[in-house]
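Q: What does the assembly look like in three dimensions?
Context provided by user:
Components: four
Sequences:
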Amino acid sequence: MAKKSDFLKTQIEHFDITKHNTVEMIEAMSKMSFSARDLARASDIFDRMVSDKDCSIVLCLAGSLLSAGLKRVVYDLVRHNMVDAIVSTGANIVDQDFFEALGFKHYQGTKWVDDHEMRDCRIDRIYDTFISEDDLAVSDATVSRIAGTLKPRPYSSREFIEEMGKHLVKKCKVNDSIILECFKKKVPIFVPAFSDCSAGFGFLHHQWHNPDEHVSIDSAKDFRELTHLCMRAKETGILMIGGGVPKNFAQDAAVGPEMIGRDCRMHKYAIQITVADERDGALSGSTLREACSWGKVDTVYEQMVFSEATMSFPLLAAYAYHKKNWKKRKGFRWSEMLNDPKVKEPKALI
Amino acid sequence: MAKKSDFLKTQIEHFDITKHNTVEMIEAMSKMSFSARDLARASDIFDRMVSDKDCSIVLCLAGSLLSAGLKRVVYDLVRHNMVDAIVSTGANIVDQDFFEALGFKHYQGTKWVDDHEMRDCRIDRIYDTFISEDDLAVSDATVSRIAGTLKPRPYSSREFIEEMGKHLVKKCKVNDSIILECFKKKVPIFVPAFSDCSAGFGFLHHQWHNPDEHVSIDSAKDFRELTHLCMRAKETGILMIGGGVPKNFAQDAAVGPEMIGRDCRMHKYAIQITVADERDGALSGSTLREACSWGKVDTVYEQMVFSEATMSFPLLAAYAYHKKNWKKRKGFRWSEMLNDPKVKEPKALI
Amino acid sequence: MAKKSDFLKTQIEHFDITKHNTVEMIEAMSKMSFSARDLARASDIFDRMVSDKDCSIVLCLAGSLLSAGLKRVVYDLVRHNMVDAIVSTGANIVDQDFFEALGFKHYQGTKWVDDHEMRDCRIDRIYDTFISEDDLAVSDATVSRIAGTLKPRPYSSREFIEEMGKHLVKKCKVNDSIILECFKKKVPIFVPAFSDCSAGFGFLHHQWHNPDEHVSIDSAKDFRELTHLCMRAKETGILMIGGGVPKNFAQDAAVGPEMIGRDCRMHKYAIQITVADERDGALSGSTLREACSWGKVDTVYEQMVFSEATMSFPLLAAYAYHKKNWKKRKGFRWSEMLNDPKVKEPKALI
Amino acid sequence: MAKKSDFLKTQIEHFDITKHNTVEMIEAMSKMSFSARDLARASDIFDRMVSDKDCSIVLCLAGSLLSAGLKRVVYDLVRHNMVDAIVSTGANIVDQDFFEALGFKHYQGTKWVDDHEMRDCRIDRIYDTFISEDDLAVSDATVSRIAGTLKPRPYSSREFIEEMGKHLVKKCKVNDSIILECFKKKVPIFVPAFSDCSAGFGFLHHQWHNPDEHVSIDSAKDFRELTHLCMRAKETGILMIGGGVPKNFAQDAAVGPEMIGRDCRMHKYAIQITVADERDGALSGSTLREACSWGKVDTVYEQMVFSEATMSFPLLAAYAYHKKNWKKRKGFRWSEMLNDPKVKEPKALI
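A: Here is the predicted structure of the complete assembly.
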């Protein structure tokens, strides 16, 4: 019978955009049609975001992206000041980035397996990728331990993830952790559905053991913080990989100010890479033009790219990296603003 | 120039499963191939869930379902004891069900419009459906008002939605509100990403005005409650319309007990209706067999149906309704258990 | 080891639209959104085609439809004068309809099999459907035998399929053969890629044995005949199930007259049921509005339905059947015109 | 009002694989997951085909590929002996390659247009690409003229396309025509549904004017020729871009010999790039494992890549080009064999 070690042999290695200059290739694609041209236009828009000194860039992550070899792409974007805030599903941030920061790995697998056999080996499958369930349990438990060290009160996911970053300052076993790099560069990470991942298991453990006084995760605070950030930014652009809650949440933040009688400003730039179809009416595949009807996204610089992300996101990110316009750019260090008790939220007018 | 009223003319009307007996049609489909046979098998599995007295049925809702005319389908399932808990995106529960309960409507629209013109008319577009943005603002504000009446503390979304149900006891203007029916029948509704919808705007307003003492939404508590529910249930089955956070969240609850050293029990039945593709590796389209590797779903009674929901969910629900096995079934009234201070969570063993 | 007979147990049974009245259900769907409303609108357009006495209805079939239980749907449409011409892939007409007419069956299978094992058992798999390869070989050989009885010359696929119909007058073992019913009702069937199926194997055998004098299949003649038909018809409507060659071919026929300097008339009605995506730029998923730029399809009565066909085509066809407007309708018997040596093609003006 | 020239401004330019070395990028992708890894594996398999001196490579083309900027990719593969036969839809070969060879162009467009306006301007739209309908009419007419110069008899599409190549020897206005390069290198091009494109219009004109004696297109002969080719080849590999008739036809050729009692040999290598979904049961999205049940494709070296082709085909082709294994390879010049009256088809044994 197959053993666990038979399945966990070849580690996933992350794509390194600094080593692959795609500028000429993307320029050649700009003269084609269909997705190639769409990708080229999206790459150009992303480069415009990076070149626009007033623009804060919000990166949205949905889907199992980081386990698929895209972690270092995001890490490099953060390190080179090309991302000012992240909105993500929990799986990417906790089960995948934090998990690897603790020293665990993702492995090349295949979908042609018997999932009962996987179950017996305690291997979890993500399409064609394998991980050890026992490794993941360590990640869960670490979240619980971090929660146990904090003062019991409601936290935004952003605040809690900063605590995870603090934890990694000493404990990180890799050199490409997104959480740690964001912590250092004061790039806030929001996970609006934070219990929907390994963190949820950690909090379950924490709260079960501390039924009366415990850390809680206030997703309303997340929305308040991101709205506040969007109000302070002069311009905003969103680069969305996948759809789901991150897409919705980041778009909503553009219209949040209306609730308190303040002026709204649409996201000036918007890109989405997705294979979701608009025809089921769900948000994940809804066009960015539809978002315009909601006042969320302007349509001058918007582009959707019909592609699974592993193939296109590295090309787009490498394009912007090798165009070097990030060199003129500083980070906005939004976490500092959000953590600063002296910075008050603008007064509500209604 | 077009006026708002030009676009808001024909109201969406909800499909009524009690009027359409699909039993023979589904049985005919069971002898075909492809999606028709898959739908027939899923319908049979749902009927088995309903017939299994030990099984608590968790309905997951993602995508703009209720605005599309599926509200009454869910309402009828709840009313006839065919649903014991709901896990949903916020849009379905707040922007759509609560919104209509306040007396507002969704309208038949089209995707062939200029979204800038929509914006000017303050009409929000959901693919081919229109709503008035001003109506939606009333919904947002009502959430804020409800929050203002509550004792400041962290709430699970489930607890807060019960307060919305309480509000509707007096204020509901329709006879098919899911929130109100669930409130009456003690069917808990979980929205793990609760700030990701109209409710988020309400909380934004509430917290902005009450920066120090306010209601917060603890998504970790949601996960704790659903895990607790799954532990108390003898068997569980999940009927998933769409994927996203609800799919992940409801599946995770099956393995939550492991975190506290308790035995887990896979969901005995699992159905998903979705057009999401498994090939992008994201959870929404991942097969239920993949979920088996994670210990979440058993594979004896699992069925995915490749279909946009408006076409297939009514047929499946009508099948189970007209098979009448729900008549032998009582509700589990799980909200009562969750609200009862005497019912303690089972002791954590690790 | 598994034997062939283990896999070929449960026969596919065809959906019978005469037994399922979907009129009220479709009317209820017309008040919803997304695909349900699209299906309802498509059903209404199809009923308009049937009610329009001037309209010749061209049914296009691509995808493994008839093996999936849709054969009788098509048969009933032909029998009740709701189809005046068929354009199809070869698989549907030869491998599936002709195959069943010879007494063979399709079987319920599953995609969860080892295809090497299937190969060893000489079972061919169509997603979740099984057939016996030996049965299919008889179908191939019968085509060769029919070819051997004909005068060697180029035939349109339409002419050859009539010969298959003639063969079935005596040999047909079922009561729902499309080829036979079309033969009786003089409904022409065009298969523009006729060698791309079981017929291709038959012709391979025929021509290999008769290298000098043999039947050949002239696809150009097919196009000429269909263009001629469209010119003679007062109005045309196309009901497309799937895309591919049939969609392209039937649309092209609307602009064919331009080549000989004659006026063209766009298809007045057009419906397509497909899950193909427009974003890959291929014809199968291209919108009917795009077809308007080519002068092929008018946009007043056009509707695409995003659905796998087994679930939606029976509902649409049953709607039109039970609306009974076909009762006022006679067939156009276009094969008679095409076979009549006295009917000349209109003179070419350029 | 918009004029035609407003829409036809920026020409599509074709991707040049010789200028973009993707070897390191593809190698980096081989260590990731999902489509990136699939693309890397497919690229490796294609390089194996090229390195295998016994292997004849059949390239299948479906979808509007050449108009989208992929023409030069195919041209370069032919020129460097990496393709031994092509099976294609007619649009690619006639409406796009032949069309450009006559000096006409494709233009960058957009899908955000009014197709009625396009119609009025006589511009045909292919998703986001525009062409002049009048230019296309010249292409149609040229096919008719070529037909008029030939001896009236049935031709395989392959034979007729060679005549188009002969025409281009003198008339070609570009340096990257696939038809011309294939003519020079004796690479056969098969278009099994040859009337389903601009050629169909040309034949319509030709036959209409010559009702009694004319060129006809025998698709059965195409199948016979490709089967013959596959029997003469020691090994075969198929590189499929898109699905449709070319996929089916090229796969069928592997089992064609069975019809005449000869041994069959599965395609040793098989790659497909497509976004088609397997769940509708149609052939375009059917897995290559399903093809194994039919005896068409071996499963050792098979890989599907879930991607729209403009983004992935250039990367795959550039990988194999820059690996340089084609340098050791000569062309098989299969057209010479097919044209040689001395080469007889192997004797039929049944």
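Follow-up: The mean pLDDT of chain B is 97.
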